[in-house]
Amino acid sequence: MTTPPDAPPPRPSPAHPAPAHRAPAHPAPAHPAPAHPAPAARTSLSTRIVLVCTAVAGIAVLVAGVVAAGLARQSAQNVLQDSLAAQADVLASQVDERGLGSRAAGLGRAAEVVRGQDIVVVIHVPRRGIQPVDQRAAQAATTAGMTTITTGQTISTKTTVNGQDYLVEARGVGRNSGFALVAPVRMAAETQRLLVRNILFAVGTGLLVAALAGAVLGRLLSRPLRRTADVATAMRQGRRDLRVPVEGPAEVAEVAEAVNELATALQASEARQRDFLLSVSHELRTPLTAVHGFAESLADGVVIGTEAQHAGQVIQRESIRLERLVSDLLDLARLGADEFRLDLARVDLGETVRSCAEVWRVRCERQGVRFQLEEPAGPIWATTDARRIRQVLDGLAENALRVTPAGSRLTLTLGRPGPDLAMLQVRDGGPGLAPEDYQVAFERGVLNQKYRGRRPVGSGIGLALCHGLVSRLGGTLTAGPAPEGGAAFTIVLPAT
């Protein structure tokens, strides 16, 4: 018994078990595909605003605290300097012009009084030098120049001894004699603690106020943005009737306006696409209905003889129409792709126009339309794709002949509007277009939607395809009124 070619392979019998190790039906790849990294968590706008406001407030308060501490220290130093100066003036007034000799004891008692204020009195007497006092205070007074002071001189300065700042107020009360009040520049511990506490309180208050202000500001800014995001999400899901309230700061309002304009444009574009698809469906259904009907009649044997020949001709004609429509749709879809092929070569446009005129002259005669060709005496050369130029001319001529009544004229023109330009033009004697329609003539389905039922119209893709082809060839295609009374479609290409 033989196994038929299409029969499935026989299953293994128990006497002949299958091999223990079988290759898997779908082997795992040698190198597993890299996993996509999970999207990083994003902080909200409100959180970022709060953090930024808090950071700015904290930095501002810290800077203000540091500046305030410096100012407080400087202010305390100035007050101490003024106090030393006043006390030095009082002591100087108690010393007579004979010098310190008779009053040194009095200055000694004054020194005992001011020592409780952390002030040291340094006395300099000729031949005896500086009286025994605090060594650092004496060094500060000496550095300030007290040993060279004379009657009537004053010294008011700040010196540094072993890293410690001292304020010195010296007065000359005799020949090469005088005294000085020396006080260390330092802030009391209690004052320092109070200053630090005040700064910390200011920092905390500033951070709290900044956080609250940032939260309110973030909420005000993020609310319209959330609404915009909600509308955008709804648009992604197919809604086109929603609009974003235009509110908030100028930048946020601009975003809302942009989303609203996008929604309006999408709504109009999708409506136009629906109308275009309906038009194309109608254009496809008509020849398909004819092909189906006549093919069914042939299959059932309803038509025979010459009727069968006529049915075959109708099927052939409608299939050609279908093929052209599908080809136009494919070309229109491929125009924006990089792989759209153009066979560029140096072409005599006169030959292309004359070969096109031979076909359309015959077709015009069949419908009683007068055909006219206008071309210059010499050749016009251009680097272009002759097949695509012919495709554009055929499409324009077909649209023109469709609306041109018998007895009117259809004109095909070749000319040179400039030294480096070539012009091809198709004009008809039909009803033409409304002035506002010339600007939108090459948008898909616009003219079909407006003039359907009022005049013969095509699928709505012919003019769009022609415009796209001419643009890919580096030229321009424009529409306008024709002297024949209808519409004129003008192609301008760079000539060589």
SSE arrangement:
Layout: H1 45-93, H2 104-115, E1 120-125, E2 129-130, H3 135-144, E3 154-161, E4 164-174, E5 177-184, H4 189-236, H5 250-300, H6 306-334, E6 345-348, H7 349-366, E7 370-374, E8 381-384, H8 386-403, E9 409-418, E10 421-428, H9 446-451, H10 462-472, E11 476-481, E12 487-494
Parallel strand pairs: 7-9
Antiparallel strand pairs: 1-2, 1-5, 3-4, 4-5, 6-8, 9-10, 10-12, 11-12
Helix pairs in contact: 1-4, 4-5, 5-6, 6-10, 7-8, 8-10
Summarize the structure.
With 496 residues, the chain is an alpha+beta fold. The protein has helices spanning 45-93, 104-115, 135-144, 189-236, 250-300, 306-334, 349-366, 386-403, 446-451, 462-472; strands at 120-125, 129-130, 154-161, 164-174, 177-184, 345-348, 370-374, 381-384, 409-418, 421-428, 476-481, 487-494.
Structure report:
The protein has 496 residues and is of the alpha+beta class. It has three domains: 49-190, Beta-Lactamase (2-Layer Sandwich); 250-334, Orthogonal Bundle (Helix Hairpins), CATH 1.10.287; 345-494, Histidine kinase-like ATPase, C-terminal domain (Heat Shock Protein 90), CATH 3.30.565.10. It is 51% helix and 16% strand. It contains ten helices and twelve strands. The protein has helices at 45-93, 104-115, 135-144, 189-236, 250-300, 306-334, 349-366, 386-403, 446-451, 462-472; strands at residues 120-125, 129-130, 154-161, 164-174, 177-184, 345-348, 370-374, 381-384, 409-418, 421-428, 476-481, 487-494. The chain has a five-stranded antiparallel sheet with strand order 2-1-5-4-3. A hairpin with a 2-residue loop joins strand 9 (409-418) and strand 10. Helix 4 (189-236) packs parallel to helix 5 and helix 7 packs parallel to helix 8. Mean pLDDT is 78; it is low at 1-34.
